[in-house]
Amino acid sequence: MKNILIPTDFSENSWNAIEYALNFFEQHSCNFYLLHVNTISSLITNDVGYAPTQDIIEETLVKPSKVQLKKVLKRISTLPLKANHRFFTLTDYNFFIESIRKHVGEKNIDLIVIGTKGATGLKKLIIGSNAASVITRVQCTTLVVPENATFVKPKEIAFPTDFSTFYSSGLLNPVLRILDLIKASIRVLHINKRDYKLNDDQQRNKAYLEDFFSHHNHSFHFLTNKDIEAAIQCFVESRDIDLIVMVAKNLNYFQRILFHPLVEEITYHTDIPFLVLHE
């Protein structure tokens, strides 16, 4: 039984993440925990020394949240339900990340699924602040579902890496489980600003990945491009990529791909889900 935590703010982006998760794990036995966090800042006032009582918190935040969560469950009930899916609702009054961490530990969460909508304006950030905080500050594998993502059974998964970091089997095992679950192919992608040969460490890490994925449909791809984001955009379009896997500790690629301000023509971040792995 897989335990999945889905934070929700009751937006359509959050609903999109719920739908995506239900479809992704259609054939898998899952406990889905729907969590709404009422942040502590919600009741902060300018009054020095003001601290809301438990009754105020309950009436102002917790009870309305429970009503909204019931509406989410009712909406879920209109979907084709699976006997192997169970749903639980959680409401909390806390700092957002502290609440996520608490429930990850208490509920033995295997995966967080979170919806996101990037910032607007001339410079778009790939993901919103809550999703960014989760994938950088919570040690749990996280599936980030962007605003325009619609579920299709993933057939092609991209795994960008610079081969500079060794990935343990424990870190990569969630990828194998997904490959087994959905029978997808994984495409390991290396992008460099100039044509050069891999050093000895990179060669060893590449050989390890070749061995690790040897029992699954996989391939390695090498692109030369000064712009990593543009190269990924090209690869996503040319290979019809359905999911991008990232490793949080590989800071070079991770930060460039997930947190770099983007121009309008880079669209993979609004359409393609990201699976972010943690040790």
TrEMBL record:
UniProt cross-references to CDD domains, sorted A to Z: USP-like (cd00293)
Pfam family, one: Usp
Domain UspA: 1-146
Superkingdom of this protein's organism: Bacteria
SUPFAM superfamilies referenced in this protein's UniProt entry, alphabetically: Adenine nucleotide alpha hydrolases-like
Family designation: Belongs to the universal stress protein A family.
Protein's name in the database: Nucleotide-binding universal stress UspA family protein
Native source organism of the sequence: Jejuia pallidilutea
Upper lineage: Bacteria, Pseudomonadati, Bacteroidota, Flavobacteriia, Flavobacteriales
